[in-house]
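FAQ: What does the model actually see?

It sees only this:
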Amino acid sequence: MMSRWVKRGIGLVVVALVIAAAIYALSPQPVPVDVASVERGPLTVTIDEEGVARIKDVFLVSAPIGGRVQRLPVEVGETVFRNTTTVASIHPADPPFLDIRSRRELEAAVRAAHAAVTLAKARLTAAEASERLMEADLERAQRLASAETIPARALERAIADLDTARARVAEAKAALNLRESELVSAEARLIEPDQLESASRDACCLTMRAPVSGTVLKVLTESEQVIRAGQGLLEIGDPGDMEVIVHLLSSDAVNVQSGGAATIDQWGGGPLSAKVRRVDPAAYTKVSALGIEEQRVDVILDVVDPPETWERLGHAFRVMAHITIWESEDAVGIPLGALFRTGSDWTVFTVADGIAVATTVEIGHRNSSHAEVVEGLAPGDVVVMHPSDRVTDGGQVVDRALSED
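And it is asked to produce this:
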């Protein structure tokens, strides 16, 4: 008899446990969430963009004349001094090789020049003979004029004829010099590289020295070669005179002011303090990596930290610039991960007594991690971070950190 009641009691207990388990399973459970507090404190808004460090004044040393430059005696990183350090030596370039047609044309020009010289010599001989004849005529006219045998006009004519003859001699000599120079020029055009003397090939006609003191940044023409006038040889600059250029979108550049603060990092060293020196007044079009045309504006930053803190920062090094456009020491801030859109409004889930409450907020400035709360929240409020679709208005939530403990 007792066993029957025991069995019934055990059965009732099992049924009660099943019913309790079903009720517990079907009842809503608090959703584990990550939470954060709304805090009052400093908030800084920056524009973050890649930049390039560069020396302010880079001097490009170029060849003033064409010729054959020797291998440059300086290397990258070497210190040079103004008007003292030799940076290049330029020799005369060798004449070009001649093809068969060019050679025959030049040989014909030489023969023509020889003939012109022979003709000029013959004309000079004729002019000198005429001069001697005019000199004899003048002597005769002078004797006859002394005896008053001929009129004075005849004497004057004899003098004029002699002057004319002498002028023709001078003209013939000049023509001969011209033809001889043309012959020399024609023969010079026949000279080829294998006909040059070693002394004339190695003679240096121009030694270039550093125009400024600094460090060699780049060697553009390292080995010996033939160069043209104006060709770049090397670049010189002062590594201690550094600036940073940042290419901002024009919509971001309008918020940047000269003299504003900035921070530079991701260059291989610690963060550096900088200041905006100039915002260019004109934009330019640049195609992004996605093929989108963008209007970019160059912003120039000066590093204000002592040079010894960034002495390893070199020319054309990549950096990350953070340019401050707004900051406050007493702002109500909220993590961006707590915000989501409800229509056109910003909304957060606040937590009160384990209940999530959808709250519309108005935000002001924001940076990459926090936003300024203008209205809707107060310091000390707790908000849900990255709410999932399981979090609903009025639903139960529990701090994930507390539930795991």
